[in-house]
């Protein structure tokens, strides 16, 4: 199956995943200028009115860059929408994205409703839905999404527990459309490996946390640089959904990472006003098991250049 137009002509087959707090206009613009998909969660733009401002700023910056660099490969923008009953901003945020004709929407948690899909498809936009299981993948495809993001074991933030080999292989039995794979991908070699497994794109998150453009404080960046896979804790305590987090931030919050209680999934809250519990966990830092491969804090452009060189070397090494 041919890839949608929005996902063609990238410098590398990479989608930058939307990162809580960290993804803002500076990071997204840098990712797109580097030739990959740049994304951010709609809920990062608070208050809700800021979403229109962010999209206008990013689109204007990329348009100016395109005029100044007519031969550049500029990646498309993607916006993440949390499809959950507690997200009272969903209708507003989708309307803003439709008005801006955002080419890629990344939906999370639940399959998007028909009216949301119809609105995005009306201008040629596509919807990629992230899933952690075969059941979720089939439900999303039945709803009418255009592609899947397979969040395998080791991914930062909300993540599944399945091996990427199993997850990609089983999904490819019934779906031939666009697939992005997430889970500890931090090198060009891993990008090629994702494609070898059957994915079209690598979905990279944690690597962008330790860049100069990410909207995080230096302590978070330094924790990424200093950590390894052994420093990642998998728990559902903080949002009600299982995810991977840096042990250091959990300890700093006064918790024992070896004895964390289980959370009640029914208390998940993605409302526009946030809430006391959400604020309490603001300093719990999400990160994937690939942090041990990150030893510095470069710019996004430097990361993409590095990934590109590693990807080309891996292809050459395998005579591809």
Overview features:
320 residues, alpha/beta, TIM Barrel, 2 domains, eight-stranded parallel sheet, three-stranded antiparallel sheet, 12 helices, 11 strands, 15% strand, globular
Describe the structure.
- Strand 4, helix 4 and strand 5 form a beta-alpha-beta unit.
- Helices cover 36% and strands 15% of the residues.
- The longest helix is centred in the N-terminal third of the chain and has 19 residues.
- Helix 1 runs parallel beside helix 2 and helix 7 crosses helix 12.
- It has two domains: 226 residues, Aldolase class I (TIM Barrel); 72 residues, no CATH class.
- It is built from twelve helices and eleven strands.
- The protein is an alpha/beta fold and 320 residues long.
Short description:
The protein has 320 residues and is an alpha/beta fold. The protein has helices at residues 25-33, 50-68, 90-99, 114-121, 134-143, 164-171, 188-197, 206-209, 218-226, 247-252, 276-280, 300-317; strands at residues 14-16, 38-41, 77-82, 104-108, 126-131, 147-151, 157-158, 179-182, 201-204, 232-235, 243-246. The protein folds into two domains: 5-215 and 303-317, Alpha-Beta Barrel (TIM Barrel), CATH 3.20.20; 218-289, no CATH class.
